[in-house]
Specification:
single chain, alpha/beta, 4-stranded parallel β-sheet, 10 helices
Length: 208
């Protein structure tokens, strides 16, 4: 199964913000216990690189990627630490090109026809749609999917347990991203049972 196929099979790609790398492996194990075997560790914190390394070394069953990748330097660091996929909030041709050359799955943020065209012309079939709730949600993606035949979206922002199934059922959705399955406070408090529960509920909501 390819990396992108793993993301689709998971249905939900948790966006994980880790303030301390020591929490990375327990968080990953909690997610696995809840039936989700992919995670996007965001580069919003200084602990991101070490967290990716810890999960890639200690949790072979977890497919770990890097999120909020803004430049090529971060991208290369994430991959060196073991990231198997790269997610960025916007489209950067340098990051996308390097990932394609090195066989790394990449989903850049694309919400306009111009950005999607740029991604498609580089050979991408899956793009991130962020923030989905700001840029028109499902209705926007449905309309964009008409001219961009075969392109699938990975929406993040405004997706939650309540509307998850509606997103997953749309034919132009690859998977959804979200941080609700691994709240920062639960990680901080070491409440990993909560993360397991939320992941299990998300899987149930997505695939019933």
């Amino acid at each position: 199964m390819t990396v992108l196929e793993r993301l689709a099979a998971a249905g939900v790609v948790p966006v994980v913000v880790l303030e301390d790398a020591k929490d990375a492996v327990p968080t990953a194990k909690a997610m696995l216990a809840g039936g989700i075997d992919v995670m996007e560790i965001t580069f919003r914190t200084a602990a991101a690189a070490d967290s990716i390394k810890a999960v890639s070394e200690s949790c072979p069953d977890m497919l770990v990627g890097a999120g909020t990748v803004l430049n090529l330097e971060q991208c290369k660091l994430a991959v060196a630490m073991g990231a198997k996929f790269i997610v960025s909030p916007g489209f950067d041709a340098g990051v996308v090109g390097w990932c394609l050359e090195n066989g790394i799955a990449v989903t850049p943020g694309c919400v306009t026809p111009t950005e999607i065209t740029a991604a498609v012309n580089m050979g991408l079939k899956v793009v991130k749609f962020f923030p989905a709730n700001v840029y028109g949600g499902l209705n926007a993606m449905k309309n964009l999917s008409a001219p961009f035949v075969g392109v699938k979206f990975l929406p993040t922002g405004g997706v939650n347990a309540g509307n998850l199934r509606e997103y997953i059922d749309a034919p132009f959705i690859h998977a959804v991203g979200g941080s609700w399955v691994c709240p920062k406070d639960a990680i901080k408090e070491g409440n990993f049972e909560k993360i397991t529960q939320l992941c299990a509920e998300a899987r149930q909501a997505a695939f019933g």
